[in-house]
Amino acid sequence: MAKTLKTSGDYTVKAGAGNSGSNTIKLDSRDVRVTGNLTVDGDQVVQNVTNTTIEDQFLEINRNYSGAGAEDAGVVINQGTQDNAIFYYDGTDNEFRIGTSPRFIQDGSSIKWEIDGGAFALSQLKIATTPSNANHAASKSYVDSQVSGAAGFTLKVAGDDSTAINVGSGQILQFVGGSNINTAGSEPDTVTVSLNNDLTGITSVTSDASNGNLELKANGTGHIVINDILTFSAMASDPSATAQTKIYNKTAGGGGTGLYFRNSNIGSGAVGELISKSKATALAIALG
């Protein structure tokens, strides 16, 4: 038989000394339904149930915190004799963390969970292998596939000339070029680039070696061919004599050209000046 208890004001059911006592009020029924708001003023709510179904879209945790700074808060999953599994927000570092901790215990006086950061161990998070959106988190499998596998890690950067940079497991940097560029890498840090095409648009070639030579070398029986004007800058002093002929420029002397040469096998290495046509003609007339 249904029964309704109606009062015109607040209605209190108190067992023994109430909140300060040790008595319990039990509701023995198949279902208990509260048609209004339910407020529990206490230190702890324990649910000895198999499944909990919640209709709310959002759950507020750490409700009564009103401090100025962020505070740690999250969810603890009891793992029995093993470390507790935890998903929480770290207020100090402003980041979410997933992990385990043997020291995430309940404070018996305030019924408040407390964590010791030094005892917290981060755990793995498994997600979908392939992200479907640019802002989705990427799995290790997906990242590995994008860089051609972690074991033989290969990073390729392609340019207009189809070159690529490969970083292999042996820590050797190699440049792989197209039909006009051949490259080879060797340990510890040598990269050789060979060009099979003419260089154009070059206005300056400078050796970076201190007092080093800049060598132009043709292949086989080929020659170094200059199809334009060759200009010599003035030398401050004569170069030393060697077995190779050195041609250089300085102030013109008796030869009237200012173009000098020096070779240790010619005139015992004495400096000589190439003579101009006019000087040679005048000399021939003078010598009769």
Task: Report on the architecture of this protein.
With 288 residues, the chain is mainly beta. Among the domains are: 73-122, no CATH class; 140-195, no CATH class; 224-288, no CATH class. The chain is 6% helix and 20% strand. It has two helices and 13 strands, in the order ββββββαβββββββα. It has helices at residues 140-146, 277-287, and strands at 73-77, 84-90, 95-101, 105-107, 112-114, 121-122, 164-167, 173-176, 181-186, 190-195, 246-249, 259-262, 272-273. It has a four-stranded antiparallel β-sheet with strand order 1-2-3-6, with no helix packed on it. β4 (105-107) and β5 (112-114) form a beta hairpin. The longest helix has 11 residues, at 277-287. Residues 155-160 have low confidence and may be disordered.
